[in-house]
Amino acid sequence: MADGAMTRADETARAEAARAKAYATPLAAFQVHDIEHFTSDTLWPWFERLRAEDPVHYTADSEYGPYWSLTRYEDIVQAESDNHRLSSSSVYGGITLFLPPEDAPPEAFSEERTSFISMDAPRHDDQRRAVSPLFSTSALAELEPLIRSRAAAILDELPIGETFDFVDKVAIELTSQMLATLFDFPFEQRRLLPRFSDMLLSGPPDTAEELAARQAEMYATLGQFVPLWNDRSGNQTGRDLISLLANNPATNGDNDPQRYFNNIILLIVAGSDTTRHSITGGLLALNQHPAEYEKLRGNHALLESAVPEFVRWQSPVAYMRRTALEDVEISGKTIKKGDKLAMWYVSGNRDDSVIDRAGEFIIDRARPRHHAAFGFGIHRCLGQRLAEMQLRVVWEEMLARFPMIEVVGEPVRLNSNFVKGYTALPVRIPS
Ligand code: HEM
In CA terms, which of 49, 243, 305, 314 is 20 to 30 Å from 390? Predict the structure, then answer.
């Protein structure tokens, strides 16, 4: 990395300090979800210690209440496969550790009011099936040329020899265009989509006025979907996500907007943040590992294995939560009925016992898809192949134009322990 960025020595000092702290802290006092670990990229030694000493770990007290952490790959696979006993349903708290607002009415937890990621079978399966056609091999092959031409247009506009924010100019722009394409949403309004996702995932605002303003803006964006939905309702031939949702009895919510918005929200958020942070994370990792960047520059075909490595290394979804519907034993510990647990993909992806040299960034791994970042089981990421295709296409187009995109300053990391990503990354394309 170039001037302005943290030096290697600074990074090493920060990592060593975090390691010393993690190894000096009693396990019972561990708060692995601490957002500061995520914003300073110092989460690794905490998880390393848990994987070695207490892989199924109980946090007795936290801002989210008590919860379990699964930190090893195999335990995550086991939990994800046990979807009848370990629930994703909003009825029991859904997929994040956050506590609901105390004044939330009981109907706020109903599966009627949520999206299929926060449902259990069979309702989940019916709704997932409704949108699956857009993620089929043939649908993705049809989308690829459009995604490529849009990526090319973005890259051709980038300034040369000047510092700019890669997150804003490339990562967000590319994913906005992809989402606008998937929803067949008005192209000129595409930036509303990632903005919506950012507002939804950002922490609580400081004032009631800010909250009201944010809610008004989010409602206004969702409102844009109403005429699109009405227009496409009844058109059985439309292949975009709105047409698929509007014309399937499992997802059209009897045309009650409150009910169908939830799957739209899921698809905006799932499609916007994850791919965005994997594009940025890949560039950052290549800059931090110049020999790997050199390898890729010398052989663009390595993208086949580099893309899944970018995703593993970034792990943009840090965890998913489940709730035990009965007592469940995992690696000798009993998760009691009613307990909640976090499956930390970010840790499973660094588990040396299943991934060879898991702590190293290696773009030509023999089994690059052997990672946990997309989850497993019935909720396994529906957009995996789309995300990988988009990452491959954008990297093919970037490598064809620019042998080097240089990171010239510190990344600004997202203030979240659920989505692991970036809000800014200063870069420069050498002239
Ligand atoms: C690198 C990019 C991505 C990563 C790492 C990622 C990761 C994940 C993870 C971890 C889950 C939960 C899996 C589980 O609970 O087992 C998930 C679910 C999901 N993802 Fe992705 N995702 C990515 C991109 C996308 C894209 C581009 C889309 C679509 C536009 C998408 C749509 C979904 C949907 C709809 C679900 C819910 C699936 C279900 O509940 O059945 N994802 N994703």
Answer: 243
